[in-house]
Design a protein that fits this description.
This protein is about 50% helix and about 15% strand. The protein has about 260 residues and is of the alpha/beta class. A hairpin with a 4-residue loop joins strand 1 and strand 2. It is globular and about 75 Å long.
């Protein structure tokens, strides 16, 4: 891979389910588009040949189907390098303790320690897998804005901003990820989830969880994350938040300096 990656550190900063995803993505430039065109054109030619073969000629059509499958695998493997989850997790910053039982200082200490000793170590270990640590100017940090009912999450959000203050930091609303559609299928539109679920929160969470874990994660074979099964929606928020920000946000939103 010779292209320069774009780095994102996306955060859903709830105190009892602090979720992050460190993602490296690549721009789909003209060289990549030509590569994709070559692979898909070859697949199309082979598919056309299959249609011209008698359905009774299984000995002739089987090798062609194998060729199509191989080309599809080639395309998927090629695209995997363009959307890589380098690290991710969802954690309870105060296990077995209710947030209301923590003082403001306790909350500050717990999130500060997690950022310094866990998140800081994530970046340091990139070199162990042969990946240089991104410079602050090349790192885009996206933090989900916490509404009034989630005011207690303001501490993790604010301290995360301070930790990454030399990077390109943006605090964005949930609306960006709600707009994301991976395919043209109408049943994947966010409005369908709003109609199906009783609360907006349930609709939002199930929308992102379905998009990521049912469609994106299997395709790109993302594995470098540790997420409890009952917190998959929080981690999915982080991934879909990146896609929504890339697609719908003004690029300058990621140039905020503190």
């Amino acid at each position: 891979m010779t292209h320069k990656g774009i780095w994102y550190f996306s955060v859903d900063p709830a105190f009892k389910s602090y979720s992050y995803a460190l993602v490296r993505m690549f721009e789909i430039d003209s060289d990549v588009i030509e590569k994709i065109k070559d692979i898909t054109a070859d697949m199309s030619d082979t598919s056309a040949m299959c249609r011209n073969v008698s359905t009774h000629s299984s000995d002739n059509i089987t090798p062609m189907l194998i060729k199509i499958n191989a080309k599809l695998d080639n395309l998927i493997q090629f695209l995997k390098d363009y959307f890589v989850v380098m690290s991710g997790a969802t954690v309870d910053l105060a296990p077995n303790i209710k947030v209301r039982d923590l003082s403001a200082l306790d909350r500050v200490i717990k999130i500060s320690d997690y950022l310094e000793f866990v998140i800081g170590d994530v970046f340091k270990k990139l070199k162990d897998i042969g990946c240089p640590q991104p410079d602050s100017k090349d790192l885009n940090v996206i933090i989900e804005h916490q509404m009034g009912p989630n005011a207690v999450s303001g501490t993790p959000a604010d301290l995360t901003m301070n930790f990454f203050k030399r990077a390109n930091v943006a605090e964005i609303g949930a609306g960006f990820k709600n707009k994301v559609r991976i395919t043209s299928r109408p049943d994947l539109d966010h409005s369908k989830y709003v109609a199906k679920y009783k609360t907006n929160k349930s609709a939002n969470k199930n929308h992102t969880k379905h998009l990521y874990f049912d469609l994106i994660q299997p395709l790109f074979d993302h594995k470098n994350f540790i997420v409890p099964s009952n917190k998959r929606d929080d981690f999915a928020d982080c991934i879909i938040q990146i896609i929504g920000c890339r697609k719908f946000a003004d690029y300058n939103i990621l140039k905020t300096k503190f």
